[in-house]
Amino acid sequence: MTNVRKHADASHAELVLDYTDPVVRLDVRDDGTGTATGDGYGLVGLRERAAHVGGSLRAGRAPGEGWTLTMEVPG
Question: What is the CATH number of domain 2-74?
Fold first, then answer.
């Protein structure tokens, strides 16, 4: 959510946390027009932390407009 505030120029953001044994899934979506490429250190760090516990992270432009980030880690 910090990155949405700092980089997205969004008017709306949504965070969804879902736990379906054995996976915890976090989805963040916004309607922003930010120019981030997904190559910043913040996303690198998130991706490394997810991988460290056997999880994954996907981030990029959403269809249409905005940005989406999905992290899944074992629960």
Answer: 3.30.565.10
